[in-house]
Amino acid sequence: MILIDVMHRVAAQMGKLYLGYGRTITTTPFIFQDEIIRMNDGDHAGGTLFLLDQTWTIQNTNINGNYTLIQPKGGSYTKPSVGAYNNYTMTDMDRSTLVNAINTALLAMGEHTTYQDFDVTATDHREFILPIETYTPLKIEFFNYVSDGFVFSDSKTWDLSVKDGQNVITFQNRIVPAETAKIRVWYNAPHPMVVDDDDVIDPDYHTRRLVYEAAYWGYFQFLAREHNSSDKDLLLYQSILQEREMLSNKHPVPRLLHRITLPRN
Q1: Residue 144 in contact with residue 153, Cβ under 8 Å?
Q2: Would you say residue 56 lies in a domain?
Q3: Same domain, yes or no, for 25 and 75?
Q4: How many domains does the structure of the chain reveal?
Q5: Residue 149 is part of which domain span?
Q6: Could you give the C-alpha distances from 118 to 57, 131, 140, 204, in angstroms and in order?
Q7: How far apart (Å, rounded) are the C-alpha atoms in residues 3 and 197?
Q8: Domain end among 57, 92, 127
Q9: Model pLDDT for residues 124-168, shown as the tens digit of each residue
Q10: pLDDT per residue as tens digits for the range 232-254
């Protein structure tokens, strides 16, 4: 899954998504028109419009159903040709609120199991030093090196220790200085921040749970700045809160434990 897909589902889950059909009037400025929608001047300004797998910030609107759209961030955006008709969806929520809610949800759901592959070289003390900071717990999925033309591969013949804040592997079989090895190191880490529409979200984070978790944090931001929220908003918030709690138990994020069967729990 990618960020824009989750943003779209979060807005829908919060009950704040409108589906429409319209055409491009001009590309400079970028004006998109929905001839059916009824709105006043300025309605939906600051919201987010989903069009052609891209998000656009709604700069302004008018009573003729025109949306004046701008890019919410840097990057390459594709504008539909003048006169082209396309389906679109729109929410009054600004893009930053949706993105913040999803990133907050990823942090709230906790660390996940990830890995890095390394080429390492033995020191004069016949040790391999991993070029990453100390992570615990830690697991080596495979370990092999070539000595005297013979390839060793045995995950049970090494010891892991921490020296001066570094993970150090001592191999129990014969090893000489400058010996090379290829290893895959598994450890727990927080999910990296997602910003761009096509940023990939790790599949360890269950989609349905992430949507409800993000919807919870999105409503948390929405209600915090609304002084007269409707009963519908409060009821939706309560139902999302309950579903969020259920999904947190049903779909935990896979994490590296002291005893684990790789690649996942």
Answers
A1: yes
A2: yes
A3: yes
A4: 2
A5: 112-189
A6: 42, 8, 11, 23
A7: 5
A8: 92
A9: 887 888 876 655 667 776 666 665 555 555 555 677 787 877 788
A10: 888 888 999 999 999 999 999 98
